[in-house]
Structure formats: structure tokens, C-alpha cells
Amino acid sequence: MAEPMKIRATLQGDVADVRVLMAHPMETGQRKDAAGKLVPLHFIQTITAQLNGKTVFAADMSQAVSRNPVFAFKVKGAKAGDKLSITWQDNTGDKRTDELVIRAAP
Amino acid sequence: MHRTRRTVLKGVWAMGALATAVAAGLLGPGRAFAAWNKGAFEAKSALDAMRALGMSNAEDSKNIEIRAPDIAENGAVVPIDITSNIPGTTSISVFIEKNPFPYTGTFDVSQGAMPFVHVRVKIGESSPVRVVVAAGGKHYTTAKEVKVTIGGCGG
Q1: pLDDT under 50: residue ranges of chain A
Q2: For a disulfide at A100, which of A7, A71, A104, B61, Cβ 3.0-4.6 Å?
Q3: Which residue numbers in chain B have pLDDT < 70?
């Protein structure tokens, strides 16, 4: 299993400002290793974010997203105590889901 | 020995259950995209990718803000902030025109997210970064040139 994501959500009114860092090599299939062999494609293809089980943000993406991808997005209608879960799936079928309970703004 | 086997079995079951739950979440009716669009992602030009996505008729718009560096020192990590000011924005797509495979991704904001996304991308050589926004069944586009001094693809 892959490393856990780092997720942060900051409430501004009823909008949650979400930042997520995923640990993933995001190989483009064009890079050569030390032995001169092409490193095979290995990248996250889809991400989905759910607020209390309902999808609020989704993405399809290519290998052009940087290694250890960082995304930020803003979810409407969020409040303290809501459960935010984020899932990614890569082209090898590997996937990971991490969750966060949104806390009240300090 | 038996205890080890039991633990392993439990682990396998737990993973299986999680995988099923995740698959249901990804494939359920909440998901807006039909499937990962292989044709568009493998297109070698931005226009071909836009055609594969049905976006090639996008009209120019000044209501899309792209915040990206004018000159990126490191093409492997170029931060881009995109905000759409077009009412009813449903998705934001990114194309890096001179990358080997220009179509970088589509962000679906139609189900409760603001029309904003921040993403970090690889840019192989200086290139326009084109954004296409879908809103109300139509497509709008704008582009910003990013100069790269060290490429982000290949070794």
C-alpha cells in the first residue's frame, strides 16, 4: 500500500479550503533509470473527494502532473465535523483512501 | 504458525472490503465522468485531445484566470492556480500544448466544489498552458505562456 496522503481543510464560512499531498512517483514513461532503461508509466489516473459520502470533487489526470501531487480545491457547504475522504487510483490499479474530519476555524 | 496465517487472512479480507468500497464509490452514480478518456490522454496534440473530449469548439474567454509563473525554473513542478468566473462552471481541463501528451487532466467541480483548482504539473519545454472550462453545455478557453528553463520530462 502506498504512503498516506496529507490532507488539510480550512473552513472559511461554509467553504472548506482543501489541500492534499499524495505520495506517488508519477512516472511519465519517458524517464530512463541509471541503467538506461525506460521507467514504465506509473501515475495516478483518478481522484475523488467525498464530503460525508457524497462526491464533491473529482479529477481525471495524466502523467504530466508532478511527482508527489499537490492539489487544492474548495468545497461548498462544508461545516465542522463533516467527514472528508479522498481517494486516488493509479494506472496499475493501486489505490488509497484517506479521511479527515473538518474542524472549526480557529 | 496458525496465528500468523489467521492474521494474514484477516488482513486480506480487510483489504478486499476496502477495495470493494472504493470501487463502488468510484463507479457509482456520483461519478460524473464516464471513464478515464484514454483517447484524449494519448493524443499528441492539444487540438486532437480537445476533439476527443468534444471541446474543440471552445470560445476564447477573459473570465478564466490562470495563475502560473511566467518563467518556471524547474519544469518538473510548475504550480498552476485556475479560477473560473464563468457562472455555472462544471469542469476545468488543462492542456500543456508542447508536452508529448498535452492533455493533463480534467477537474470536475460540478457537484459542490468552487470553480477553482490548484495543481502542480510537469512542463517539458516552454509552452502555452491552455485551460478549457465547461459551463452550461458550452466550452470556454484561455491560455498562458510558461517559459521553462529546465524541462520536466525525461531524465
Answers
A1: none
A2: A7
A3: 1-34, 151-155
Q: What is the pLDDT of residue B149?
A: 86
pLDDT value of residue B151: 61
Query: CA–CA distance from A32 to each of A39, A68, B102, B153, B155 (Å)?
Result: 6, 19, 21, 10, 6
Q: Would A66 be classed as within a structural domain?
A: yes
pLDDT in tens, B38-74: 999 999 999 999 999 999 999 999 999 999 999 998 9
- Strands, E assignment, B56-137: 59-60, 64-67, 71-74, 78-84, 89-96, 103-108, 116-121, 127-135
**Minimum Cα–Cα distance from B30: chain A residue:** A55
What is the CATH number for A45? 2.60.40.10
Chain A environment of B112 (Cβ under 8 Å): 51, 54, 56-57, 75-77
Residue A17 belongs to domain spanning = 6-32+39-101
Question: Which 25-84 residues of chain A touch chain B by CB within 8 A?
Answer: 28, 30-32, 45-46, 48-51, 54-67, 69-77
Q: How many CA atoms lie within 13 A of A76 on its CB side?
A: 8
Q: Which residue of A has its CA nearest to B99?
A: A64
Q: Any CB–CB contact under 8 A between B128 and chain A?
A: no
Binary contact (A66, B76; C-beta < 8 A): yes
